[in-house]
Write a structure and sequence with these properties.
homodimer, Clc chloride channel, 4 domains, three-stranded mixed sheet, 10 strands, transmembrane transporter activity (chains A, B), transmembrane helix (chains A, B), repeat (chains A, B)
Chain lengths: ~625, ~625
């Protein structure tokens, strides 16, 4: 139609097909599985840290994420597919880890061996590594991504398992690419991998190339931090809109789609025709970037031997468009990644810098684009090693030195501002992510300083009515159990009981009529297998008579009598290390009985209790040292 | 001389120069720093696990390791340089971490920022990664080696630091190679890197190549286990000899040198001349392998387009020689690595398999040699991912699929026998290495079950004579401190005090004349900095008068009042997780006071106390599952 100069019709077809695809993606996301919106990497990262966001690993989410991501990427929105691929991989892994999907009857019996917390975490880690490996055909990069960015706990055995996963992904992917290159997969064409156009494997770089590389790193750090800042603001505005209802969400997505279509269709008209390839069909350099898949745009930008192909104006327009359009596109209610938009944006300004420096450098513009992408990724995502290895694998092992320099500088510079993009999104979503290191002011506090709210505890032999009341009025998942006279000589912390186990006891009605310990009865009614079920009981589902409410429960046989315990004078930083390294959910405090959970260690909570610490000298000291150490 | 047919003279020169170099290496190792003998990887691995073997990181060791390794490798002994390089890297890192060497006056003031346990561990980890990177010019392989094999604790920040280290190593190394390739480094020639001779980057492999690859994996697993078995036996015999004195050690090294010289000089006479390159100068294929550096031998074996170059007999002789000579050479008193001998041996039988299969496979013999090396490495060292990546980096990214298969099979098969080679050496040296996972029978035991020997504890206010007596009669590094009536209402575990702190107190003579707590005096005499010194006091160096012995020490202000504590009914497996993950040295037990150290968790200790567990059903169950899980 463009060739026939039927521009109006062409725009209509272009924008309507974009609109339809976006609408479909937004509809299934909003109606079927809202958890599938966005990148998915923050959710998976939080899950691996021990935060279980609702519905992120269901079969529905998997379905919506896959279909929705295909639609969103096809609809010309500037969104990526890497994040959704990571989420998809993690989803499949988690479904395998819970023995399939019970709800849809897809279960395998042999999968029950993996049905425990540790194996499920391992599987999800491997799944996320597989996602990156699939997006970039980078097996080692995927492994390192999982290790550097995703995993909160790591075992030596996991290295091999994750690498096995990513290697299988890479092998299958390469086989499929080979099939497609031989022309046997019809419309799918050559697939959407970003591969650098390499003919000679030796890239020579000299001392004169150092200043431009340093410059790129600095620009990347600044632009990346700014990107994160804008993205956070836009997400906050979008959240206000999205909270109003499903209709608002979908309208927002539609508007973004229409805006994108107009922009993409309109912008190429601004660029003048280049001397080559232009007549008869209004083909120009900006259109070659804009009217392409993102992957092909990256390929164009990364390719060498095309130093004369782009004009300054086109590259600048393209860069500005990508920068802001990707920020606007991310928050809509559809699966949307950030990796590819960031690479496109970074590559475009890298190319621009290369064009400005021109013949003063030995590097060609394609290499500048690669370095620009690295610097922008380093500035916004801060995952230096995995990015370096992914880019090395993408570009067939060129450029180790300049890539390292660019990433080091952009990361260091950007770290002076705020956290990385995924941490910002996690914070925006309110996930209580637990960092490895303790904040310096935590050394000034003891475990006794951070307890808030009235403590709920049970006695070894407790009245049923009391258990029901506490279960109804609190959302705690673990309760300390104490023994007091006359059942023991002095008050004594017996252990910790879980809410799920209490629910099971209430369900089985293993009650005593008198508050006297008789543990024989209890074990006859209840077996160990009853406690293996997960999330089996809600307090609201349990019906008890008046009479039963007046009876008693002997909690002793069902209490964990050797929970991890700390004294209340222990430094908070020390307790945090225990909590984090062992991967606990509840930490008991003695001799004044208390319970510590993840929330008690969150900086926001601690600082809210002790506002004077915010500006303490520890904080300032830390800032200075952190700068220094980050150089290494 | 060989060309002039003066064979006797040639042998004399060959064997005497070998003898001299070996003698020198053995002498400096035995006299200056015995800790520099052997590979060094087991020592560094044990250090990173928390076992501090004496003298492994001194400036002397660094010196002896570097010089000795150069001499040993040059002296035609079949020993490697990778292990020594890893040890060297770790040594330099540790010296930086302790602020230089005090003994030789080489200290830097700014290094004191790294003078703490965590930074030192991090530095040593990075140093060991640098060693592997330097040996193979494999930055990612070095990183993964440190991660998979060396590190016992791992933080996300360490990924970047280790990669930065290895990348710098790789860049410097490449620059030096470039300089040497241009002929500017005289006798050093082309350097000893193993680089695969690649011209086309596409290696095609088909389904018919699967059986030979499987075969190689199986042979590698079996030969590798057998290699470990022989090596352990030989090391045991050598230990018996070496224990008798330095003279015995040196004589043993000299004998091995003479034996090696005879073998290497004599063997090429067995091989008949090949049709090419032979007359006039008795050059033959076996000599091309034997009279070369190991690195060049590997290069020859790995190279393609040389399918007709080697005879069956030569390869078989070479393989057998390498296999047994490397076992005999390792245990002598000189720096000696295992990596390169294992690669040479593996490559030779890989090539042999390739020759036997011949034209039935698409792979050339060079690739078979690479796969053979991988299988033998997998069978003896079991570090699958790092080996895979190192070999991928060595061979420029060919062969991902067959390498993975070979490593998977050889590792799985070999794991059915005994531990990996470094674990065997660590066990032979008696290092108490703490594994990540708890043995299954530990779930049947509680913390109370493993305490051995009489407990030494102190009271909050303790008699000086008592402190001196206990310090003299035990080697413990931590003691529980309890308060008893009349100082407290009931017996009460106050905390943990370290031997080093007790020594400092005795030195400062911060004594009380009466057993009454007055904490003001104590803090005036002693400041926090006094406790920062390390290993400052030996009990034998402290002189106390009779009068002082009758005085008292108030330990309260110097006791760690919030040590990690577990109840004695806690499962041993659970306590081990706490001990291992948090990286403790002492774990307190309550309410019956006790102390748990690394030795209490060692399987040997636990099984010695509870011999019935050795054949318990848990053990059998574990064996079955372990097999199954290792497939992943």
């Amino acid at each position: 139609m463009m060739l026939q100069r039927r521009f109006g019709m062409a725009f209509l077809v272009f924008s309507l097909s974009n609109f339809g695809l976006t609408l479909f993606a937004a509809l299934i996301t909003a109606l079927v599985s809202p958890a599938a919106a966005g990148s998915g990497i923050p959710e998976v990262k939080a899950y691996l840290n021990g935060v279980d966001a609702p519905g992120i690993f269901t079969l529905r989410t998997l379905f919506v994420k896959t279909i929705g991501s295909v639609c969103a990427v096809s609809s010309s929105l500037l969104v990526g597919k890497t994040g959704p691929l990571v989420h998809t991989g993690a989803c499949i892994a988690s479904l395998l880890g819970q023995g399939g999907s019970k709800r849809y009857g897809l279960t395998w019996k042999w999968l029950r061996y993996f049905k425990n917390d540790r194996d499920r975490l391992d599987l999800v880690t491997c799944g996320s590594a597989a996602g990156i490996a699939a997006a970039f055909c980078a097996p080692v990069g995927g492994l390192l991504f999982a290790l550097e960015e995703m995993a909160s706990w790591w075992r030596s055995a996991l290295v091999w398992r994750a690498f096995f996963t990513t290697a299988v992904v890479a092998i299958v992917l390469r086989a499929l690419i080979d099939v497609c290159l031989s022309g046997k997969c019809g419309l799918f064409g050559k697939g959407g991998l970003i591969m650098y156009d390499v003919t000679s494997s030796n890239v020579a770089y000299h001392i004169v190339d150092v200043p431009p590389v340093l410059l790129l790193g600095m620009i990347g750090g600044l632009l990346g931090s700014l990107y994160n800042f804008f993205l956070e603001k836009v997400l906050r505005i979008y959240n206000l809109i999205n909270e109003k209802g499903i209709a608002y969400k979908i309208v927002l997505a539609c508007w973004i789609s229409i805006f994108t279509s107009c922009l993409l269709f309109g912008l190429p008209w601004l660029a003048s025709c280049r001397k080559f390839q232009c007549p008869p069909g209004h083909y120009n350099d900006l259109a070659s970037l804009i009217f392409n898949t993102n992957d092909d745009a990256i390929k164009n930008l990364f390719s060498k031997g095309t130093d004369d192909e782009f004009q300054y104006s086109s590259i600048i327009i393209f860069f500005v468009t990508c920068y802001f359009l990707s920020i606007l596109s991310y928050g809509i209610v559809a699966p949307a990644g950030l990796f590819v938009p960031v690479i496109v944006t970074g590559a475009s300004y890298g190319r621009l810098v290369g064009m400005l420096i021109g013949s003063h450098s030995n590097l060609n513009h394609g290499l500048f684009a690669v370095l620009g992408a690295a610097s922008f990724l380093g500035g916004s995502m801060r995952m230096t090693v995995s990015l370096c290895v992914i880019l090395l694998e993408l570009t067939n092992n060129l450029l180790l030195l300049p890539l390292m320099m660019v990433l080091l500088i952009s990361k260091t510079l950007a770290d002076a501002f705020k956290g990385n993009i995924y941490d910002l999104i996690m914070k925006a979503k309110g996930f209580p992510y637990l960092e490895t290191h303790a904040e310096p002011y935590m050394r000034q506090l003891t475990v006794g300083d951070v307890v808030s709210g009235p403590l709920q505890l049970f006695h070894g032999i407790e009245k049923v009515a009391n258990v029901v009341h506490v279960s109804r009025t609190t959302r705690h998942n673990g309760f300390p159990v104490i023994d007091e006279p006359p059942h023991s000589e002095s008050p004594f912390l017996y252990g910790l009981i879980l809410r799920a186990h209490l629910m099971e006891l209430l369900k089985k009605k293993a009650f005593l009529s008198d508050p006297v310990p008789t543990d024989i009865d209890a074990f006859e009614q209840i077996s160990a297998e009853d406690f293996m079920k997960r999330g089996s009981g809600m307090i609201e589902d349990i019906d008890l008579t008046e009479e039963e409410m007046e009876m008693f429960l002997d909690l002793h046989p069902f209490t964990n009598a050797s929970p991890y315990t700390v004294v209340e004078t222990m430094s908070l930083a020390k307790a945090l290390i225990l909590f984090r390294e062992v991967g606990l959910r509840h930490l008991l405090r003695s001799p004044v009985v208390g319970i510590l959970t993840r929330h008690d260690f969150m900086p926001e909570h601690v600082l809210a209790l002790h506002p004077t610490l915010i500006r303490s000298r520890w904080k300032r000291l830390r800032l200075q040292f952190a700068r220094l150490l980050k150089l290494f």
